[in-house]
Amino acid sequence: MAQIKAIFDEHGVIYDANKNLPDDKHKIQFLEALAELENNECHRTKTFPVTRLHKVKGVKQAVYRADVDKISGWRIHLQYIDGHQHLKDIIPGSKHDNAS
Hints:
By secondary structure, the chain is an alpha+beta fold. The chain has helices at 13-20, 24-38, 40-45, and strands spanning 7-8, 54-55, 64-69, 74-81, 84-91. The chain has one domain: YaeB-like fold (2-Layer Sandwich), CATH 3.30.2310.
């Protein structure tokens, strides 16, 4: 059985995603992204084919970005605090900056 890496949602990102994502296709992609982020094997191998998880450059705090949908630009921002993932925000493509 696969090990699960916990995700904490103190900021209501899952609720916001359900409310703000434009359609069911994006909501399913969001759930697939969360599933990949929970998959400990992805973290062990540092391979994230669905979300392309990467550290945001140019910020002091260690903030990571995970794609929900690359084409439309929907992204999840998260941080690792004490080894646990904490969801911080979900951002539509029209509102994110150009930081990579």
